[in-house]
From TrEMBL:
Subcellular location: Cell envelope
Signal sequence bounds: 1-20
Name of the protein: ABC transporter substrate-binding protein
Occurrences of domain Solute-binding protein family (ranges): 84-449
Keywords assigned: Signal, Transport
Gene3D superfamilies: Dipeptide-binding Protein, Domain 1, Dipeptide-binding Protein, Domain 3, Periplasmic binding protein-like II
Keyword Transport: yes
Top-level taxon of the source organism: Bacteria
Length: 534
């Protein structure tokens, strides 16, 4: 029988820590075929991005989901919600009242998958390497509050921070802080291709065709020592060119589970079907979608143009037409379920209004209709993206104030062009590095932001972000976080559109699907197992 399982959302930041299951890799289910998982994520090595799986470079949800299986971090986000807990570390914590000195002690007997011992020097090497390489993906910015890394003996690592950072434990749970072997990862160069080595719960063997990873086999790492219980011996991750092919493979039984990105139509189908061998799991998600602006581009350099777009776009209609109940309108970069969220854009602009938008443009002496091209990626955020941009185009053009074209491109073309400032307005998605409001603000607004945005607000960068990071109690940071969101709503360097739920569809003999993804869309393959078909 087909079942739809709901994992109810919780308010992030108000939860008590949930500890990950303790134990090594000895408790996995023995024997059986590999659990096959489908994804539409594409993993391609190009001239612009020759090292897609190097932890010092990777910075998208797909590549991170590969790295989280293979490269171990000092801390890890628990399978439910809550504060990060030790993983490669035995313990971690701030050793001062100002949140500027963070100390981790490694687990005793920690090893890389090849059996070599891991020492504090390896951790320092890994962190310092990512910081020094400063890859153009911008991922190194997650480590920007580190001043120096010190070691004490073979097991103690001490992080001296430039300024207080209460979110630092979360940052140590991200792949950029993954522990790598100096023998495999050169100090001054990214590791090209698709080889990955670490001390995580799995080792990985990649099947590569035409510079693209099409299949990855994850095999339980016998030398893994951490906080996770690995419930299987082998998982195969297969990359599909589109959601329809992936869905067909699931229904035929060629694969056991699919996650991102199912089409809105597939989610609706699996949700409504009764009978059959596929179950749908729906859970709260923290994914957001937004428009980003090159604020130096002549077409959108005027704040009035960006404000007029914010005044016109009807998020409720957009979500209803394209995504239905799978998404909710979003009026801030910070999702509604994250502590510190405010409806800043609704507070400023209220309901969509052509009259108000026209007044904004008139007062700024902007000639209408304003000609723009909205750019989107055709293959990175799911099949609904094109329809979403068609709806945005229609809304803006129907106002008579804009003359909008839309243009799609594959991610391998889209992302480098966006980073080089070739697009004036473009659509992006964000899956959080960790579930805290800081991670929905600093990556877009701070120095070395991952968009490469020229927008620079001194109050945000120099005062409000640092002030918010001083507060270990994230509720106490709400004042600074709200001010940031209000400034963003006024200046509109980005325009939030919606936040979405996340889904897993699986054959009904697969267990652990409720924890296959955590709130940050981390793929937790170690949770999967096989049970009795029902």
């Amino acid at each position: 029988m087909n079942r739809k399982t709901l994992v109810l959302p919780a308010v992030i930041g108000l939860l008590a820590p949930v500890l990950a299951a303790c134990g090594g890799s000895d408790s996995g289910s023995g024997g059986g075929d590999a659990i096959a998982v489908g994804t539409t994520d594409r993993f391609t090595a190009t001239k612009d991005a020759p090292a897609p799986l190097d932890p010092a470079y990777a910075y998208d949800v797909g590549t991170w989901n590969v790295l989280r299986q293979t490269v171990q971090t000092l801390m890890i986000q628990p399978k439910g919600d809550g504060d990060p807990v030790p993983e490669a570390a035995q313990s971690c914590g701030f050793s001062d009242s100002g949140n500027e000195r963070y100390v981790c002690t490694l687990r005793d007997g920690l090893k890389f998958a090849n059996g070599e011992a891991i020492t504090a020097a390896d951790v320092k090497y890994s962190i310092d390497r990512a910081r020094a390489l400063k890859a153009d993906s911008g991922v190194f910015a997650l480590l920007s509050t580190i001043d120096t890394v010190e070691t004490k003996g073979d097991r103690e690592v001490i992080f001296h921070l430039k300024t207080a950072d209460a979110t630092f434990p979360y940052k140590l749970s991200t792949p950029v802080a993954g522990i790598v072997n100096p023998d495999d990862y050169a100090k001054n160069k990214l590791r090209d291709g698709f080889d990955v080595d670490g001390s995580g719960p799995y080792t990985m063997k990649a099947d590569v065709k035409n510079d693209e990873l099409v299949d990855a086999v994850f095999t339980k790492n016998p030398n893994y020592k951490g906080s996770l219980t690995v419930n299987n011996d082998k998982v195969e991750l297969r990359s599909y060119s589109d959601a329809d092919d992936m869905g067909t493979a699931l229904e035929k039984g060629d694969i056991d589970l699919i996650t991102r990105t199912m089409s809105p139509q597939q989610i609706k189908k699996f949700s409504n079907e009764s009978g059959g061998d596929v179950d749908l799991v729906e859970m709260a998600g923290l994914e957001i979608r937004y428009l980003a602006f090159n604020t130096n581009a002549p077409t959108v350099k005027s704040r009035a143009v960006r404000q007029a777009m914010a005044q016109l776009i009807n998020r409720s209609e957009l979500v209803s037409r394209v995504y239905g109940t799978q998404a909710q309108p979003l009026f801030s970069l910070v999702p509604a379920t994250i502590t510190g969220h405010s409806n800043a854009f609704f507070n400023k602009y209220g309901d969509p209004s052509v009259t108000k938008a026209k007044s904004l443009l008139t007062q700024a002496d902007i000639t209408t209709p304003v000609k723009l091209t909205l750019h989107y990626t055709t293959d990175h955020y799911g099949s609904g993206t094109k329809e979403e941009f068609e709806d945005l185009q229609k809304q803006l053009n129907d106002s008579g104030l804009f003359d909008v074209n839309i243009q799609g491109a594959p991610w391998t073309t889209f992302r480098p062009a966006e980073q080089k400032g070739k697009y004036d307005v473009y659509g992006m998605g964000w899956f959080p590095d960790f579930p805290d409001a800081d991670n929905y603000l600093a990556p877009f607004l701070d120095k070395d932001n991952f968009l490469g945005s020229p927008y620079d607000n001194g109050e945000i960068r120099n005062t409000l972000i640092p002030d918010s990071r001083r507060e270990a109690d994230r509720i106490a940071a709400a004042g600074s976080l709200t001010e940031i969101q209000d400034i963003v709503a006024d200046d509109v360097p980005v325009l939030p559109l919606w936040q979405g739920n996340q889904y897993v569809a699986a054959r009904d003999d697969v267990t652990g699907t409720a924890y296959a993804l955590n709130s940050s869309s981390t793929l937790q393959l170690w949770e999967l197992g096989r049970g009795v078909s029902g």
